[in-house]
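Table S2 (continued). Query chain:
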Amino acid sequence: MRFLTTAVLAIGLSSGVHADFPSKPVKIVVSSAPGSSPDLTARVLAQQLSAQWKQPVVVEDVPGAGGNLAAEKVAKSPPDGYTVLFSSAAVLYFNKALYPKLSYDLEKDLVAVSRVSKTPNLLVVPANSTYKSIHDLVQAAKAKPGDIRFGSGGSGSSMHVIAEVLSQQAKVKFEHIPYKSSTQMVQELLAGQIDFTFQNIAVVMPFVKAGKLRALAVTSDKRFFLDPAIPTVKESGWPIVWEGGSGLMLPAGTPTAVVNKMALDVEFALSKSEVKLALQQNGVEAAPLKTTEFSQSVREISAQWAGVIRNSGAKVD
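Corresponding output:
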């Protein structure tokens, strides 16, 4: 009886230790550059969580190495819930298959908290480009192998992988030009230094609306709400569907009570109409998944794209 009482007391104390989480500022480490879709989404979420928690929630952008620098930083942080990874699709779904060696193990060193959003990519070309469709790009690549250049915000990004998959399916060769950030890449695209990109819709849609870029197709399963006039890649004849998302992860060993509380708080934040609207204005759809479902989806989507990546031959040294 004494042991039972002690055990119950211990459980009570353990759960109570985290009842006031967070009791100090929280840092969200974003695996993408400032101005990217994950960065914009993280800032909307951080503002809402700060209001809910009555604590500052600071966003720190740590781009580079396809998001691996940010993932490593969080994986090696104290497992107390105060350093959170806001991960882009590359870390969640692609990097395990793209990189021969990683300095962290996604499944062992990090624990899933919640999916936050999903958003497709948009195939865009400069407004003065002669290419009016994916078919035009493919035909040009067949006529001039290796001369058609596409840009990405970094090797291993969704922009990189989707273009590699298209080249594989179309049996053509595009030249990949990786940039240090999506912002830099878009500027080069606007200047005509590259021919096309599959960029996150939130980043390039303003340029499409301003008449500076031309949208050829969207990677969503159905036409996207921001502009239903844009055909899907699938409609254009290529069976490529990508609605990549972002999600929160914590260092392995973070108390379950903290993980669960954060997941519930994120779900509540994403249910707010003002948060949904802010994300939609950035071309992002709020799409929370509870911890277990998010973890399962990461495994399933990673396995699906691992096969695609292997077949495409895409690798990052």
